[in-house]
Amino acid sequence: MSGSRANAVFYAESYHPIQAGSIDGTDTLPHDNAVYRALLCSSAGLYDPFGDPKVIGDPYCTVFVGHLNHLTTEDTLHKAMSKFGRVKSLRLVRHIVTGASQGYAFVESETEREMRRAYEDAHHSMIDDCEIIVDYNRQQLMPGWIPRRLGGGIGGKKESGQLRFGGRERPFRAPCMDLSLSIYSFFILRPIPLDDLKRLGIPPPPEGRYMSRFQVPPPPRRKRSNMDREEPSHRGSSIDREDRYHKGGSIEGEEHSHEGSSVDREEHSHRRSSIDKRSSIDREERFHKRSSSDREVRSHKRSSTDWEERSDKRSFIHGEEHFHSRSSMDWEEHSHKSSMDRERHSHKRHRHY
């Protein structure tokens, strides 16, 4: 019981400066000036996550890469991240005056699948003898985000005293309500102030839906359009059911989602079968057209060949007949001339005698 409770964590879906400064996500007051400054920026709306003109690309295909070596260049980072998928673009953040690397970058992949692969596999990998961390683009995808320079952010080092929780490296720990389960049992444990959290707009800890610290928190997914909802995949429907279940849906909601997903699957299978039939019909038509055209070409070639052979034979026969007729006529003329010559010669002899 104690081991499972010690490994129970949860992650922040939206950013609140007071909650990010708490180890269990239940604080209601800022514990230092940096958190108070981040709270002022958040309440006054002084930070615009989409106001940076250098931020380009699709946020759902972009990952944040931190803890980089300050000597790492764009080429080295591109070569290292290409192992996990095709890299479309990257931006190594540098100092505006000196141009030195700030130790973090944003890498955009070609597809969301390649981004998720880099998100899962590139985390804690080594680049230039430094162990990097990989996270999704919280600047554009996390509601209420406040950067580190304004007192917010995620993570941090113990030496600085500016730890921020709720991220991938430092998730929120499950609040310990039992005195025997706490390693800090000399502190006075208090119940979770649900009313104060609700008043401040801080989401309470998800009781009964904690994750293990060894599980990988999924990055946000793109909201599907109406065209995508008409043809959902099996994975998408299961994710939608899980989201509805985590939002506190009742059993009727689960049954309704199950029926809706089954109807969607039937429609998808029907459309897929109709598309397959249509493609098969098109293939048959193309095959028949191709075979008919081939037959016509072969018949045309054969007819032309036969016609040429027949014309050659006819010309040969006609030539032979012409030769034979001409030779016979020449022989008759020659014989007639020879007979005339003999008669003339005999007549001369007779007159001589």
Description of the molecule:
The protein has 353 residues and is an alpha+beta fold. It is 48% helix and 10% strand. The strands form three sheets. A four-stranded antiparallel beta sheet has the order 3-4-2-7, covered by helices on one side. A three-stranded antiparallel beta sheet has the order 8-1-9. β5 (126-127) and β6 (130-131) form a beta hairpin.
Q: What structural category do the secondary elements indicate?
A: alpha+beta
Q: Report the β-strand fraction as a percent range.
A: 5-15%
- From the alpha carbons, calculate the radius of gyration and give it in angstroms: 45 Å
Largest sheet: 4 strands, antiparallel
SS field, number of helical segments: 10
Comma- or semicolon-separated keywords:
single chain, 353 residues, alpha+beta, four-stranded antiparallel beta sheet, three-stranded antiparallel beta sheet, 9 strands, 48% helix, 10% strand
Write a brief structural summary.
With about 350 residues, the protein is an alpha+beta fold. The protein has ten helices and nine strands. Residues about 180-190 and about 250-260 have low confidence and may be disordered.
